[in-house]
Structures are given as C-alpha cells and as structure tokens.
Amino acid sequence: MNGDLLVRCVFFATLVPLIGALAARLSGRRRLAFLLSSLVPSVVLVAGALAALTNGLGRITTAGLAVAAIPVASLLVCVAGGRSDGLTSLLLFWLVFAVNALMIAFCGYLAFWFHIF
C-alpha cells in the first residue's frame, strides 16, 4: 500500500469517531464519548505499525517512537476519563478531543498538502 494512500485512509477513518465522540459527549453519553475518542489514537497506532512493517523495521528512529507516545498517552487519558466523573471527566474529554483533532489535522496535512510545498 502506498504511504500517501495509507495516510489518506487514516485521515478519513479517524474523522468519523471524532465527530461521533463530540456528538456523544454533547448528548451526555460520557463513556461512549471516551470509547469513540479512543478509536482515533488506536487507528493512528495501527496505521503506524502497518507503515513500519511495510517499510522495514530498520527505518524506525527514536523520533518516530517519540511521536508514537502521543497516541499512547491519548489512549491512557481516555481510560482515565472513562473511569472519572464530573468536571474531571469533562476536562479530560476536551483534552483528548484537542489532541485527537491535532493528530487528524496533521494526518490531513501529510495526506493532502505536504507535497505542494
């Protein structure tokens, strides 16, 4: 699979859970919102692992592993947010939502506008 095609698939595959998480949170379904929010970093991690396996494991760098820490941290915050209540849950949701939106924006940049410049 071409790398550009993979990033475009990740971009579109992560938009749906992000919008669903926002809708679930606004309708008061806290745990569903965190479940849908956890799909975004999960897809990013699986796509990164797929890209690493297809390009060869010898090309993995320390900086690449550091970038993988962002989705892992987002997953951990989703677990903590799903178990908490009240204001803590609300703040953790918006933190995860912002991080996920930035991950999706970065994937969109890589997929569509990176080759223009």
Please, could you describe this protein's structure?
The protein is mainly α. It contains four helices and no strands. Helix 1 runs antiparallel to helix 2, helix 2 runs antiparallel to helix 3 and helix 3 packs antiparallel against helix 4. It is globular and about 45 Å long. The model has no long low-confidence stretch (mean pLDDT 84).
- List the secondary-structure elements in sequence, H or E: HHHH
User: Helicity, in percent?
Assistant: over 70%
Largest sheet: none
Q: Which whole number gives the mean pLDDT?
A: 84
Which class best fits the helix and strand makeup? Answer: mainly alpha
Q: Helix segment count?
A: 4
What's the layout of helices and strands?
Elements: H1 3-26, H2 30-55, H3 62-83, H4 86-113
Quick summary:
By secondary structure, this protein is mainly alpha-helical.
Which descriptors apply to this entry?
single chain; 117 residues; mainly alpha
